[in-house]
Amino acid sequence: MFKKILIANRGEIAHRIIKACREMNIISVAIYSEADKNALHVRRSDEAYLIGPSPANESYLNKEKIIRLAKQIGADAIHPGYGFLSENSQFIKMVEDSGITFIGPSSKSVEMMGEKTSARRLMKEHNVPIVPGTTVSIKSSEEGKKIAKEIGYPVMLKAAAGGGGKGMRKIENESEFDSSYERAKNESLKAFGNDDVYLEKFIENPKHIEVQILADKFGNYIHLFERECSVQRRHQKVVEEAPSIAVDEFTRKKITQAAVNAAKACNYYNAGTIEFLMDKNKNFYFLEMNTRLQVEHPVTEMITGIDIVKQQIKIADNQKLSIRQEDLKIHGHAVECRIYAEDVDNNFAPSTGKIIHHRLTSGPGIRIDRGIDIMSEVPIYYDPMLAKVVAWGIDREEALVRMKRALSEYQISGVITNVPAFNWILHQKTFLDGTFDINFLDNEFLPLVPHKWKDESAKEYEEIASVLGAFLKMQEQLTPSSTNHVSQRNSWREQNYE
Amino acid sequence: MSLKEIVGESRTMNEFVVTINSNKYVVKFSPNGEVTVGENTIPFEVTKINGNAYLLKFGNRVFEITSNKISGNNFGLLIDGWYFDTTVRTLLQETVNELQQNKAKAKHHSDVKAPMPGLILKMKKLVGESVNIGDPILILEAMKMENELRSPSSGTVKEIFYKEGQSVEKDVTIMTIE
Predict the structure, then answer these.
(1) Could B18 and A347 be called an inter-chain contact, meaning their C-beta atoms sit closer than 8 Å?
(2) ipTM of the complex
């Protein structure tokens, strides 16, 4: 087994991987940028190394430096987490060539799946259904417009190297094409270092259903059932759950089989996720494969009892999968809410600053994966996700009441978060009856922003808030020098720009 | 009548107007440990747990509240998963504020403000150019996403305070349109 693992990531996922290392008695190595010098992943690691300045491309994306460091300090494996270099086949190749083990798939598999257009071709060949559209990237706006006309508007422009909503644009009609094309290309270049984009027909009101798979280096493949990730804003997932109440036994059988086929098609090993769009008639289409650990992996861990990160490490260590498909069962139901540092009522503006108070929620069925603690900085350079609250219940109903209870206990100060938005989401009929699709938030929530989404139960608290607000103001007048709770807006928002 | 006479200075120390989402609450504390909100007078007690967490007993109801002090008059409060941006003013401050707002309404120009901290990627308008409401005027990059800002009003670009490539704080005025 590995003695020392370098974690080429930050935030909650680096923290999550450290926990797995601890449990496996492996030395965990954190890397950090200047902005992250006091970050939680640094505090929790066994060893930590400054990798560079705050911008990601000078720190967490600096391939050469990370590999050089790993060699220098005698790390025998690198775990990439998600985002950053996790799906960068060039980086994985460099790791492979350096003699260090990459905890993830081979660079070859990633390459096959990473370039979204060739992945679509590969899936088509292996009888995994794909969304109609191009299987090569488009060369010009003119060519794109021609194809869009053929397959019919609306269409989606997507980054060939992409994922996570970056470099992705929906185009309703031809007049929008040029500017969207330019924007999508710019965003992809910035996010992935590659500006190739391709075109897909826009599937009306689909659900986002994905299947977790695990495969070892000996050709054994299993799936860990599906996740439902349709609650999204601007293509960023906000709530995920497992299993999906929209997937019946028959569909589950078909979609998990398709997922295993997809993994086999690229000779995959380690943990991976195959994402599908599912329409109202439960037809599903391959969207993309995420050749890495997924943000929402905890909901699968909760319903299967399998520690996916530890499985990743064992697979990378050339161990055979010890879990057999027939032994796996869905146990109960799990829901995850992503806590973002954003001000919902101010157009979801990212909120940056220093965490000055943080109390975790806990209790039956609750798990928190987090990247922050008291005195952590939330810098502008990286993704604004702070933590994930996961609730497990014997059924969906219990998981949801636990989630609501847990979120009401969550305390955080120093940044503004999206916690209140879940008070709305988790009470909607569309969400509760499972009929929601990927447009749920855009269609039903966004029109109510700002403030109109707050219902009567929020109103009841306004009076309470007014009493404490007035009390704090009165105290300040009595002792004007005691500004010991939070500093002024300017310093609260203090940040170092490049 | 002076402002002082309207309000009565002695009352300003314990009587406040709290604005939450444009709802106004008049809150008055009495020396015997009671608070009056609107029509109701209720015993209350506040315990400071730490610099940012408070326990509020309101009658016999108990609330744990987390605070973000945003400015001298502005407290963000998180209660049972709900977040409230409260603006607290003494009666005197409230009266002054209302007068100022009425004055501002008389003017006819609009500011384009940064809705979030970010980097100005592209300015789509120059000083002197005319714009229509909803026209794309600049692209602001924040947390890896490009955000197109659109004009809040129709008119002419009067002044631009930042250049492409510059970072802006939230709420700063990037340009004015007249």
Answers:
(1) no
(2) 0.83
